[in-house]
Amino acid sequence: MKSVECITALFACASLVFAGGCGESSGGTASGNSERTKPSFLQLAKERFSVRYYAKTPVEQEKIDAILEAARVAPTAKNLQPFHIYVLKSKEALAKINALSRCAYNAPVVFIVCYDKSNAWVSPFDANDNSGVMDSSIVGTHMMLEAFDQGLGSCWVKFFDPKEVSAAFDIPANLTPSFLLDVGYPQKGAAPTKMHFEKRDIKDLATYK
Ligand SMILES: Cc1cc2nc3c(=O)[nH]c(=O)nc-3n(C[C@H](O)[C@H](O)[C@H](O)COP(=O)(O)O)c2cc1C
Predict the structure, then answer these.
(1) What's the pLDDT at 36?
(2) % helix / strand / coil in the chain, to the nearest 5?
(3) What parts of the chain have a pLDDT lower than 50?
(4) Tally of domains within the chain
(5) How many whole angstroms separate alpha carbon 53 and alpha carbon 50?
(6) Which of 1, 99, 112, 182 gives 86 a disulfide partner, CB atoms 3.0 to 4.6 angstroms apart?
(7) Bridge partners of 207?
(8) Does ligand 1 have an atom closer than 6 angstroms to the CB of 100?
(9) pLDDT reported for residue 38
(10) pLDDT at 183
């Protein structure tokens, strides 16, 4: 994990372009008969970006519930569901996580998504191939995209010491904090960084055989 990612945020600030609320287009545009056009999945995937500046506005419990519901229905290897999520929203918990990671970005909600290595599927072809990280990452992807669909911003964060986080939040030994997901309403002017647009061409990332 590049520590430079946190710093990127500072540069992003200098070149802020008002981007509107994240997921603003989720509801689409109203047509004459007030029916709304849903954005395609690709639109959603392209419009989402990492938010590193959050408004103080609290996140409604229904939106947190929807994000957790998206986590709940995520696919996992052999459907073992080897994950647990801590929802940090109290003042104390948020102060703790901001002290432990400079990439919590004072978001009003921070999820710690953990996997349970002892309950995750292990490949019969490679005993070191435990699906915990993969499972929790799919869970996180569902959560990140649901947050965006709810008009919220998010940032996936690996810049923290899992041992410190486990100790601070009394996370049991069978669970490993996989990543943090900061969530909240983007501050006015929050915009994608340069990195958001730097993507390889399809011809470079896929090979037909
Ligand atoms: C596994 C993973 C770890 C990441 N860790 C951090 C992090 O610690 N701090 C941070 O500010 N962004 C982090 N990010 C966000 C990436 O920097 C970001 O997704 C990438 O630059 C593309 O930009 P976009 O999300 O705006 O499209 C992480 C993303 C992923 C997928």
Answers:
(1) 65
(2) 40, 15, 45
(3) 1-33
(4) 1
(5) 9
(6) 112
(7) none
(8) no
(9) 82
(10) 99
> Given this model, what pLDDT does residue 66 score?
98
Tell me the pLDDT tens digit for each residue of 150-180.
Answer: 999 999 999 999 999 999 999 999 999 999 9
Out of 5, 110, 199, mutate this one to test ligand 1's pocket (max ligand atoms within 8 Å of CB): namely: 5
For helices 61-72 and 132-149, the axis angle rounded to 10 degrees is 140
CATH number of the domain encompassing residue 175: 3.40.109.10
Write down how long the chain is: 209
| Domain span at 57 | 4-205
Single-letter amino acid, residue 127: A
For the Cβ of 195 lying below 6 angstroms from any atom of ligand 1, the answer is yes
What is the pLDDT at residue 35?
Answer: 62
H helix runs in the chain, sequence order: 4-14, 41-47, 61-72, 91-100, 132-149, 162-168, 194-197, 202-205
Letter string b/e over residues 79-90, b meaning 16 or more CB atoms within 10 A of that residue's CB: eebbbbbbebbe
The finding on whether 67 has its CB within 6 A of some atom of ligand 1 is no
